[in-house]
Amino acid sequence: DAQFPAEKLNYMLKDSACRAVISDLEQTDIVFSGQWLAPVQLLNQHYKKINIPTVSKHPAYIAYLNYTSGSTGQAKAVVVGHDALAQYIESAKQFISLSEQDVVLQFATANFD
Predict the structure, then answer these.
(1) Which residues, 6 or more positions from 64, have their beta carbon under 8 angstroms from its beta carbon?
(2) Phi-psi region for residue 27, left (φ > 0), alpha (ψ -120 to 50) or beta?
(3) Contact (CB, 8 A) for 40 and 20
(4) Do 78 and 68 contact (CB within 8 A), yes or no?
(5) Could you report the per-residue pLDDT of 63-86, keeping only the tens digit for each?
(6) Which carries the bigger pLDDT value, residue 43 or residue 62?
(7) Taking the domains of the chain in order of start, what are their residue ranges?
(8) What are phi and psi of 64, to 5 degrees?
(9) DSSP character string of the chain
(10) Which residues face 15 on adjacent strands?
(11) Which residues are in the AMP-dependent synthetase/ligase domain (predicted)?
């Protein structure tokens, strides 16, 4: 979320050992201008065929990190594995009963905890 304070974003990037960022140009400029991490600009461009290395897959491997709000101090990363993400998606599908014709309105940012 580009609206987060720069210090919080820098902390999360360093803490997570993030090596790449996929963002739109506007967000990249706001968040990462002059920072230690070189952003990867992919959105709104013509895609070129690139060689992507094969990555080992395992259900327990990390799918994403969700940082806590840090209300009691420094934000902490919560590790979410592919297995937990898949289970969450399956549960949500059953609970919400979405079809291909449905549209979902979300007010919170995708990274809101």
Answers:
(1) 80, 85
(2) alpha
(3) yes
(4) yes
(5) 888 888 777 778 889 999 999 999
(6) 62
(7) 1-46, 56-97
(8) -165, 165
(9) -TTS-HHHHHHHHHHHT----EE-HHHHHHHHTTSSSPPEE-TTS-------------TTSEEEEEE---TTSS--EEEEEHHHHHHHHHHHHHHH---TT------S-TT--
(10) none
(11) 1-112
Q: What percent of the chain has a predicted confidence (pLDDT) above 90?
A: 6
Distance CA 2, CA 38 (A): 16
Q: Computed from CA positions of residues 28, 31, 33, 36, in that sequence, does the dihedral angle turn out positive or negative? A: negative
Query: What b-and-e string marks burial along 83-108, b requiring 16 or more CB atoms within 10 Å of the CB?
Result: eeeeeeeeeeeeeeeeeeeeeeeeee
Phi, psi of 85 (to 5 degrees): -65, -45
Q: Please state, in angstroms and rounded to a whole number, the distance separating the CA atoms of residues 92 and 99.
A: 12
With a threshold of 0.70, does the pTM exceed it? no
Q: Which tokens go with 70?
A: 């840090």
